[in-house]
Amino acid sequence: MALYRAQVVFNTTSGITEDAVTNTLYFDANALADLDDVHAALEAFYGGFDQLYGDQLDETNCLVKYYQLSDPEPRSPVLEEPLTGLTFATNSGPGEVALVMSFQAAKISGLDQARRRGRIYIGPLSGAACGHLRPEAVVIDLISDAGAALALASGLAAGWTWAQYSTVNGIGNSVVSGWVDNSWDTQRRRGLAPSQRTTFVDPNA
């Protein structure tokens, strides 16, 4: 098997390249042709919770770039496919807010489990999805169920496997489980840059 990096790119309605949102996932595949099945599984995965994404993302302009990790750097994609069939919400929440889906390989005595875990950030979210103190159970379940379905498809597939990858270990390990916590992940760098400034002064100064 060869190890591939799948760079999932969600472009925004702003059309600004720097605003694009990316996820990185890894897959072991027997042959390049098996990436077609990987791509179908990714479309099903993201389609499982696409309604959680806000409309600042362009549902018609999403794609996946696949890179073979054994290729020399700088690597060129061995396959580039649009991510189709997605329907995002018609409203937006703050771009800084996301949910984290974590996943891991099987625990093995003597191995550092922290290097056998991975994560992706789901966001930016719609206003309806993130308009509560904590993520609602229905929101968490959509992502968790999609992760479980991807793990199941991986386990049943003959030609590919969803993998966790550590740059330290340099190998892919089959994903066996994962989780979604009921807390938001917030990072200012995900937000939009200011487009205007409203000032005030003391009228008596």
Summary, kept brief:
With 205 residues, this protein is an alpha+beta fold. It is 16% helix and 33% strand.
Which descriptors would you attach to this protein?
single chain; 205 residues; alpha+beta; nine-stranded antiparallel beta sheet; 2 helices; 9 strands; 16% helix; 33% strand; globular
The structural class is: alpha+beta
Radius of gyration: 19 Å
Report the portion of residues in β strands.
25-35%
Major sheet size, sense and barrel closure: 9 strands, antiparallel
Provide the number of structural domains.
Answer: 1
Separation of the first and last Cα atoms: 73 Å
Which parts are unreliable, with pLDDT below 50 for 5 consecutive residues or more?
Answer: none
Helix/strand order, N-terminal first: EEHEEEEHEEE
Inertia-based shape: globular
Query: What's the helical proportion of residues?
Result: 10-25%
Strand element count: 9
Round the mean pLDDT to the nearest integer and report it: 95
Number of helices: 2
Q: What's the topology here?
A:
Blueprint: E1 2-12, E2 21-29, H1 35-47, E3 57-68, E4 79-82, E5 97-105, E6 117-122, H2 137-156, E7 160-165, E8 172-180, E9 185-186
Antiparallel strand pairs: 1-2, 1-3, 2-7, 3-4, 5-6, 5-8, 5-9, 7-8
Helix pairs in contact: 1-2
